[in-house]
Known about the structure:
Blueprint: H1 3-13, H2 24-37, E1 41-47, E2 51-58, E3 64-66, H3 72-75, E4 81-84, H4 97-100, E5 107-114, E6 120-128, H5 136-175, E7 180-184, E8 190-193, H6 195-201, H7 205-208, H8 219-223, H9 226-237, E9 240-247, E10 253-264, E11 270-279, H10 281-303, E12 307-311, E13 317-320, H11 322-328, H12 337-342, H13 349-362, E14 366-373, E15 379-390, E16 396-405, H14 407-422, E17 426-430, E18 436-439, H15 441-447, H16 451-454, H17 465-481, E19 485-492, E20 498-509, E21 515-524, H18 526-546, E22 552-557, E23 562-565, H19 567-572, H20 583-589, H21 595-606, E24 613-621, E25 628-640, E26 643-653, H22 655-677, E27 681-686, E28 691-694, H23 697-702, H24 713-718, H25 722-737, E29 742-750, E30 756-767, E31 773-782, H26 784-821, H27 825-848, E32 854-855, H28 856-864, E33 875-878, E34 883-884, H29 886-905, E35 915-923, E36 930-938, H30 952-965, E37 968-974, E38 977-985, H31 986-990
Pfam family, one: PAS_9
Domain PAC: 240-292, 366-418, 485-537, 614-666, 743-795
GO molecular function, one term: protein histidine kinase activity
Amino acid sequence: MSEQEAARLRALDRYRLLDTPREQDFDEIAEAAAELCEAPIAVVNLVGDGRQFFKAEVGLGVRETPLETSFCRQAILHDDFLYVPDTARDPRFEGNPLVSGDPGLRFYAGALLRTDGGQPIGTVCVLDTRPRELSERQRRGLMRLARQAMTQMELRRSLREQAEQRLLHERILDSATDYAIVAMDPQGRVTRWNTGAERILGWTEAEMLGRTVDAFFTPEDRAGDRPAVEKRLAAEAGSAPDERWHMRKDGTRFWASGEMMPLTAEDGGLIGFLKILRDRTGQRASEAALQASELRYRSLVEVSPQVVWFGDEAGRVTYCNTYWYDYTGLPPGETGEASWMGVIHPDHRERVRDAWLAAARSRGGYEVEFPLRRADGQYRWFLSRARPVRDEAGHLKSWIGTTLDIHERKVAEERFAALTELAPAIIWFGNPDGSLSYLNDRWYAYTGQTPEQALPLGWGEAIHPDDVDGLLKVWEAARTHETVYDTEARLRARDGTYRWFLIRAEPRRDASGTVVGWLGSNSDIHDRRQADEDLRRAREQLHLAVEATGTGIFDYDLVTDTLEWDARTRALFGLGSEAPVSYDVFLAGLHPEDRVWVDRAVEAALDPAGSGTYDIAYRTIGLEDGIERWVAAKGQAFVAGGRTVRFIGTVRDVTQSRRAEQTLRETEERYRLAARATNDAIWDWNLATNHVLWNEALTVAYGYPPEAVDPTGDWWITHIHPDDRTRIDASIHAVIDGTGTAWSDEYRFLRANGTYADILDRGYVIRDGHGAAVRMIGAMLDISERKRAEEHQRLLTGELQHRVKNTLTLVQAIASQTLRNAPDLDAAREAFAARLISLGRAHDILTRSSWTEAPIAEVVEGALAVHRGAAMARIRASGPSVLLGAKAALSLALALHELATNATKYGALANEVGCVELRWHVVHEDEAPRFCLTWSEQGGPPILSQPSRRGFGSRLIERSFAAEVGGEVKLTYAPTGLVCRLEAPLASMQEPRDEVAA
């Protein structure tokens, strides 16, 4: 058991209501719940350990049931209210035997009984054997009744606990001998603190020694200097008694009666004081509670809506509450026999007086009913009860009685008696032993028996001999289990004929729940039985008539809640011929996705206010074979007396047709999804109407919204490029007008944004039985990218031819110049190889960018990589990011290679300390920006004079740079080192590009 459940059971146990007798207050709550919700069953229920106890119940007939099948164990899991319109459709209850079996509970609504501590201990609930709705008013009313039930429970617990506490306090006060005794010096400082003081006040002696007694006086007494006042009074009068509030160590207050006395020496001198306290908090609280209890009791008596009276030992009335005098109009305080006998109806006075005197003599209970005169002279029926009050020894000390107005009940009983005589049915009262005590005149008129012949057991002679044993067996079972008695039997009429009767009875219980009798009725159902038999024969004929049609039949009798299926209907639900069927079986056999809406369709058909027709198709899952089937069902409901009594119809297996429809839908869906998944514009052209249906790609790929498209072949033709239009119109009509079926062609199609797309269009012609074209379906494939790729490839091929030719020309020039100026073959080979390597690196850079452009930093790095290997920090390059065209990149790479080679041989890189500064930038002075690059050498061997002749490298730099990019080259031989300045228009450095990244 969980700790939470244990706490809940402890909270329930505090009320001590389990297994207690019935009480009128709770019975009235249950009755009010049943009446409010118009339910046959109502319960004030307490959920215990493994069981539920009914403190009050209406229509249930038991006081306790196991918790396993309890609805209320679900209710206590909810915050305030559990409402289940139909338990058979609620997964929490659909397997509950109380739902699927007897008594077939289908509706539940319960308001939670929750303690002040929040623990759920039970419910006030209503139940019914049929599904139903609960209004908001009924729900609020049920919750109010639950609160009233808790109020009753809390009141009983409070009164019991108050009585227990009052008794406990009285015993403690009677037996307590502990006192707080405190000794102090003349200044009020504690010198002695006994054990009683420790227990009562909370401080230990060690904590209080040397402190003043002010500590256990209240703040208001300390402010009024009460300790000093008590010492002064004690010193003057020899004693200072008091009764007041005091303080404990923990800050709580307690009421104490105490006394302060002076302590004197032998010579009479004051040596201190003695303070004695006794805790009177409990006694004070008990007295206050007793006074409040007496006040409440007297107030209850005075405001009670019934007469409350007291009598002495001899039976003389000594007191009547206000209600008596207000009702009778007698003078207040008048209690004499003559006065109260005078207001009793004259016809009942002697009977009432004799009953009262007999009770006084026997000293037993008194109970009598009589009419009592009201102050206005009218008489009303009252029930008077009294019980003797005895002392502990059992001696009678007095009487206490009540007189309750039962006028409405008496009138109702008289009306009921009249109704039983006027009712068209036979009404009877049964005794717990099975005998009858009453039969209305309908019985005697029908059977011809007399009361002496029929009562108490002679009624059995009117039962048909073939029905006697079954009737007595059911009657015995109902009495044994205290349940509703329900059977059918034939009763003999006075002319000797027999007719069928429905015989029903319900147990009548007293306040404790004990069955004291039975109220029953016999209704003539002979004509209905005959109609049922006629219907059975008609149904048999119908069965034979539809046997050859392959149609199944269902028949639902709502009066008896019986559902019948023929063999075909059972087969559609995957059931054998002997399998039991019911509405729950019908719902269980439905496909889960269809179950809810089919149930609603049946409910609508069964609604008496509706048309009563039923024509639907649904899926079943075979309950035994697991096969899914489609079923078409039609039915008609029949209403009698405002109530649907029967529901009959047919079912057919439509699985094959449904599967064919499903296959068609799936095919159409696949086509639709395929059309959506492709970017091809798919078209469907009705050649007879010239109507064209497009898919969504016309909008997605070509930008035309649906409202902008005229769905005709003419709209398509007008959006073809004018140069292609005549050709395409002729080619497609050549196929349409001929005998072919396939058409394909390429053309340009106008997009919504004004541009043209290259299209490959293919179509298929559908012809009728005479070979005439009636329809054409095709797809437009956008091949613009393919066309651009083909054009790009053509351009690349031409560019490659141009680049190869230029490169070969450049290599030829380098070779020619190198061989012409080299001193020997080895030098020529070395110089030629280095220049080809530099040219190759520039080619590598350009190849990575498809020979369109190359970053200057990569060109510089590629040209100088060989020379910077050992002198990494000696060549410093910097400048903005500039993209160079192919020609400019090759020319610059060769120029930098020549400059670095000469610097290594003769210039700044020929020693260990020289360096090279390589800087470039873009000048924006004029409209056309210019590219500038400066090569500056420093720290190398000094240049003492200008060179006598120009080498091949210098000429190569000037010729290649000037020829390829139209640039200028300026070489300056300064004493500190060579300075080379290259300058050219930025546009020529970038060839086709126009922008500059600076």
